[in-house]
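Lecture 7, part 2: worked example. A protein chain together with NAP.
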Amino acid sequence: MPVYCITGANRGIGLEFVRQLAQSSDNTIIAATRSLSSDLDDLKAVASPSTHTVECDTSNLQSIHSFVKDTSRILGDKKIDFLLNNAGVNLGSWQNSLALGPDELHALLAVNVIGPAKTVELLLDAGLLSADARILNMSSVLGSLQRSSGPGPRQYAGYSISKAALNMLTVHQSEDLKQHLPGAVVISMHPGWVKTRMGSDAAPLEPSESVEQMLKVLHRVGGEDTGTFCDYSGEAIPW
Ligand SMILES: NC(=O)c1ccc[n+]([C@@H]2O[C@H](COP(=O)([O-])OP(=O)(O)OC[C@H]3O[C@@H](n4cnc5c(N)ncnc54)[C@H](OP(=O)(O)O)[C@@H]3O)[C@@H](O)[C@H]2O)c1
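Predicted complex, written out as structure tokens:
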């Protein structure tokens, strides 16, 4: 009876995770969403009886604290087996590295880096992560230093910087968690270029295909994979 926790579950890739996981009544799902007062019709439409919608604004420390308390109340003795740090933003996409807006960069780092860091930390402190938890930090190929190097136009400087920082977080979390949860695995994953509000209609991949493959990868990773970076099909991506 695995327990999944997904942030940014109300639309896009996060919603698709809930849709696919809710098809099995064995799965307990914590569907975390930035605000319970926003339109959650799509989430309600895919939720199973064992799906619990919980508020978590991952850019807000107080909200993450409340989320952890709510999740603890819901799970009782159960723990999270799969944590999908999926919530993310791409702001100021017009910017390049010579025109970075500090406000946009702070906001990107708050959601894309500090959010996943504090979510893991506070869930761990509350004893809510299982001994062999699988943690997926939703990254992007745009966070790969190697793929971004060389001649050619750069894209989305602030977003790339935040996802590169998230990748470094993965490397640190994978090591730091060993003393607390020796069986835990933390990976960074690129979901592909996916048709969502962020990915746009021009994207070649449907959320269903990306998520189906990501779940396969997530279910087969082992200790040797912790602290690595791959795409939705499991293919390694250079840092
Ligand atoms: N789509 C792609 O091609 C692509 C490619 C590479 C990586 N990714 C990554 O994949 C993840 C999901 O992206 P997506 O394509 O599904 O994007 P999306 O359709 O824009 O959805 C983003 C999700 O993140 C949530 N979110 C944003 N800020 C939040 C906050 N402060 N607290 C809680 N939730 C917040 C959004 O909630 P609201 O509705 O409340 O805003 C929404 O549920 C992101 O981390 C993104 O960087 C996507």
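The CA atoms of residues 16 and 157 lie 27 Å apart. The chain has one domain: 3-231. Keep this in mind for problem set question 3.
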